[in-house]
Amino acid sequence: MSSRKEKVVAVAGASAAAVVLMRWWLLRRRRRHFLMMSKEEVASLRRKYVCRALSVSYASSPLMMVEARGSWMRDSSGTWFLDTRNNVCHVGHCNRRVARAVARQVALVNTNTRYLHPNVCALARRLVETMPRGSKLRAAGVCVFVNSGSEANDLALRMARAFTKKRGVLVLDGAYHGHTLGTVGISPYKFFGGGEGGCGGESQGDRKMKYPDLKADFTECATKPDTYRGRQSAKAFAADVEAKIESLKKKKKTFIGEFKKDDDEDIFVEKEEEEDPGGGVVGIAAMFVESFMSVAGVVVPPPTYLKRAFEVVRSAGGVCVCDEVQTGLGRAVDSEDQWYAFEQHGVDPDVVTLGKPLGNGMPVGAVVASREIADAFADDGPEYFNTFGGNPVCCAAALAVLDEVQFGGLRANAVDVGAYLKSRITDRMRECSSDDPKGPTRRPAVTVGDLRGTGLYLGLELVTDFDSRQPATNAASLLCTALKERHHILTTLDGPFHNVIVLKPPLTFSKKDADLFVDALFDEIDHLATLPP
Hints:
By secondary structure, the chain is α/β, with parallel strands linked by helices. The chain is 39% helix and 18% strand. The protein has helices at residues 2-35, 39-49, 96-106, 118-130, 136-140, 149-164, 181-184, 188-191, 234-250, 305-315, 371-380, 392-407, 410-432, 473-487, 511-529; strands at 65-69, 72-75, 80-83, 141-146, 168-172, 203-204, 207-208, 219-222, 254-262, 265-275, 284-290, 319-323, 351-354, 365-370, 447-454, 457-463, 489-490, 493-494, 500-503. A hairpin with a 2-residue loop joins strand 6 (203-204) and strand 7. Helix 3 packs antiparallel against helix 12 (392-407), helix 4 (118-130) packs parallel to helix 12 and helix 6 crosses helix 11 (371-380). The N and C termini lie far apart (95 Å). Mean pLDDT is 88; it is low at 196-205 and 271-279.
């Protein structure tokens, strides 16, 4: 009897094991099927299961990337593309040092910042040490880790309001600071629907705010310091900053409810919006600036502008925040000793935010703030906790990124290759100029009207004519498509007229890569000149 029971148990156990193995085999087969799907199958699945608010590059003929190395990416057809647009893979696609660091750490432990771990502290110290010598953040800066640049800017906003006890925020026309509710509300690029930014009501001039409900209360926008299309004087731009701060000072706080006691609990009771009976003013909590404006079209503020603007903000009691999500960690630099674009302006920010490049594709961002601001935030509100922010794996990736930038010569490469790019493009611009007697006999349909930026963060503004500076929006789109289709070069367009090619490649970008881009770009510009109008 006992033997029979044992046989039954054995058979049952074998059957259960067989079921488990069958399920594992089916799952593995299904996973392999997904990995082997065609681009068309993936596109169909994406349309069915993924929200269409997530846009796709080259929508009419999207790419499915399957491999990448350095400054190059390979799609599902086996074609390699030169990547001039990816400032996320900061130290090169699939960087070996970063990949090894992630693999080692993820095989050991990955947890949150409620436990001690050396990676978190090591990364905080390293980031503070990247701040300029003699700066307040180098002397007494502290870090908070998050998952993205959007989260970093959102947290910086909370910190500034906790420190100043004010609500108002000053940003620049066309700025973009993130996709959270808080940061979209201070991003004119977003609430104007990707067109030319601005504030001051639902419309400004001929521009209309596409999403007025997204604009945060008490957000003011100063004139974009665009020296190519706007006023030339840093003093005039700074005067506009002062006027906007005065406007914030005059605004009154409002509230839409109050707390009442109900069975010894605080219950929030909504009511119609009305003026704060205390008569408090909004004031200025912070000014957020991208050291070089990104989606606005690589707008580089004129010399002394940020110094003047920061002086005005601080005299009004506000905090100065430099958003280095796009430009930081050795990208937009004119010296291999620099880490950040704000260093070229000679300013000493109270807060610096970091995101995209810090993890080379791993989700990690950071806020580096002065201790007094960080302490005010810690003392004035609830505990701040971020489940994944500062986890050991992402910190390991970030430490490897800093090693690559610092010891791999990537800042020097950014300066060297960036200067080479500018020199080659300037030479070709001169050839296209109608004032050049050696230039082409046929006037180009599109040309580079302005070249701006430093290091490997450059903007090429495409225009139909040097003198009129008419934006070449349609031609810019044709150029980018031609670069992808005929030359296998990936580019991106930004700016209010979508006519600025933004070069922000991995810092491994070489002079050979630069030659490929410049030759292809001007070949296509010459080709456009041969087409009928």
